[in-house]
Design a protein that fits this description.
With 263 residues, this protein is an alpha+beta fold. The chain has one domain: outer membrane lipoprotein receptor (LolB), chain A. It is globular. It has a twelve-stranded mixed beta sheet with strand order 7-8-9-10-11-1-2-3-4-5-6-12. The N terminus and C terminus are likely disordered. Helix 4 runs antiparallel to helix 5. 39% of the residues are buried. The longest helix has 14 residues. It comes from Streptomyces cremeus.
Length: 263
């Protein structure tokens, strides 16, 4: 089962984060007082924007768990994903692309996928499965599908924290030449704001936690043909992923052999 359609939003977000640039944002209710400005100067004192970006990527990679939410748009279409992932391979999340919706869980190394009819139709059409695809759509719609190991390995890209976060460090040169704007807040957390313009005229804005661990809080890509916003929250919180009830699970391998639908 090809994963391109299913994880496009996650992959797009991860690639955007890989270009760890940033843009200016004004702090809500900013007073601009001398005391406030002095406090901001102490945040990451003596560190360049590039060094702050490097530190944030390292901290995010080392986090035991995180929630990654993405909103993306391209060619007149929108996509979104929302995943909670940890370093043990557990995950729970959703993908939407236009009217197509899918939910994924990974528990004890087993990956389950549940999607609506629009999702299966789009995915199976992409694979060119014809009549077999239509039959599968009817069987899989609104059921939890237990993905075979080979398919799960490709499909669970959004569920693999290490793989997603690894893209942050894919090209260290993309974090060079950044500038720092005025500190702001993201979901009530103080954040350093970093900035970089791409060769394509896009502005990448990166928000890094300025208190406690220097985690990445948000990355925005604007000004281009494919704007993306990715937020990182719930660091260190357990992933509450549970296997679906057996009676709601379809095993495609058994189905192909004429076996029972439930695993």
């Amino acid at each position: 089962m090809k994963a391109k359609f299913m994880v496009s939003a996650v992959a797009c977000a991860a690639l955007a984060v890989g270009v760890t640039g940033c843009g200016k944002a004004d702090a809500p209710g900013s007073s601009g007082s001398p005391d406030k400005k002095a406090a901001e100067k102490k945040t990451f004192e003596g560190q360049s924007p590039d060094q702050i970006a490097d530190k944030s990527v390292t901290a995010t990679k080392q986090a035991d768990s995180v929630r990654i939410r993405t909103e993306a748009a391209a060619n007149g279409q929108s996509a979104a994903s929302d995943y909670v992932v940890d370093t043990k391979g557990n995950c729970s999340g959703t993908n939407t692309q236009q009217e197509a919706k899918a939910e994924m869980r990974r528990v004890d190394s087993v990956t389950y996928l549940k999607a609506n009819q629009q999702y299966w139709e789009a995915l199976l059409k992409q694979q060119g499965t014809g009549a077999k695809g239509q039959k599968a759509t009817a069987a899989f719609k609104d059921k939890w599908v237990k993905l075979p190991p080979a398919d799960a390995k490709a499909a669970q890209a959004g569920c693999d924290k290490d793989a997603v976060i690894a893209l942050l460090d894919r090209d260290k040169s993309e974090r060079k030449g950044m500038t720092r704007a005025e500190d702001t807040q993201v979901d009530g957390k103080k954040a350093a704001v970093l900035q970089k313009k791409t060769a394509q005229g896009e502005t990448i804005t990166m928000y890094v936690a300025a208190e406690d661990e220097p985690y990445i809080l948000k990355v925005e890509q604007k000004g281009g043909k494919a704007p993306v916003t990715t937020t990182f929250t719930d660091y260190g919180k357990p992933v509450d992923a549970k296997a679906p009830p057996a009676g709601e699970v379809v095993d495609p391998q058994k189905q192909q052999k004429g076996g029972a639908a439930a695993s």
